[in-house]
Amino acid sequence: MQRQGGLGEIFYPTIGEPGARALEFVVTGRGGVAAARKVSTERVDGLRFRQVFDGDGWRLTADYVTDPARSTVLVDLAFGGGGGHGLYAVYDPALGNSRGGDAGRSVDGGLVASDGGVASALVGNFAGTSSGFAGVSDGRTDLRDGRMDWHYRSAAAGSLVQTAELRTKHTTLALSFGGGEAEALATARASLRDGFGKVAGDYTYGWKGYLAGLSEPPHGLTGAQRRLWTTSALVLAAAEDKTHPGAYVAAPASPWAFGTDDPSGPYHLVWSRDLYQIATGAAGRR
Fold it and tell me: Comparing C-alpha atoms, which of 266, 263, 239, 269 is closest to residue 16?
């Protein structure tokens, strides 16, 4: 989740390796064009989140869920507004933890990107797609005049940004990852076939089962404090290494904090020195 809205810092294939910088939304219509900025965020169930965006005569609601059976994030979008508005998804991949080597293209109404042995696919009910370069031929630049003029079918390896025009006011997007374009594309389509409702139900069921196995929160907590306790337990579980229980990266967040580092690494690395200091008590003696 990004504070300003949309998804940011998507990791694949491990929690220590970023696979995308952002998936954001742009609305065009009265008053020109505006990136959809979050008005509110709420945790719906488990680690399922909803964002609400309000603009001049429109409202966008985005529900996010991870497919527990696949490397997919599903986004259920409900857009309400008068005629003349357009809704676009702008996807900024960073496959293989690098912003400069992603190649992309349109495939059967969807968008695929690849860098070495990692690939992504963005699939939905799209009226148009385009793959361009950040700051030159990307969707943010194209949409400044309130419409999508560019429909580039492919872009060579570089700082790739992909754009899709959404055809309907209520739709579901799948952003999937895999070892190659075909795998990522097949994964996205499989998640969409299952549907947002089923995937969200499976996802919530898994997190509820996890919480049921924990000890009760400390007595005396207020309602808000209990919600914070529950959310913290979920976030810690999500950040834990699934192969080596008890192992965590420093923090699965802010990999682009220093702006120009490529590959990024300030927060999502395992700092063995810090672990040694904790084990020996050296950190506390500073």
Answer: 269
177 in a structural domain: yes
* Domain range enclosing 176: 7-198
Does residue 282 lie within any of the structural domains? no
Burial of 158 (0-12, 13-18, 19+ CB in 10 A): middle
Element (H, E) at 141: helix 139-142
Is residue 273 included in any domain, yes or no? no
What contacts 2, CB < 8 A, 6 or more positions away?
Answer: 8, 9, 22, 24, 38
Partners of 75 in beta bridges: 64, 173
Domain count, the chain: 1
**197 Cβ neighbours under 8 A, 6+ residues apart:** none
**Residue with the two structure tokens 């389509």:** 189
The predicted-structure confidence for 154-209, as pLDDT tens digits, reads as follows 999 998 999 999 988 899 999 999 999 999 999 999 999 999 999 999 999 999 99
Is residue 134 included in any domain, yes or no?
Answer: yes
User: Which pLDDT score is estimated for 34?
Assistant: 59
CA distance 79 to 170: 6
Question: Which CATH number is 172's domain given?
Answer: 2.70.98.10
> Sign of dihedral through CA atoms 92, 98, 100, 104?
negative
Distance CA 203, CA 215 (A): 21
- Report residue 275's pLDDT band, with 50, 70 and 90 as the boundaries: very low
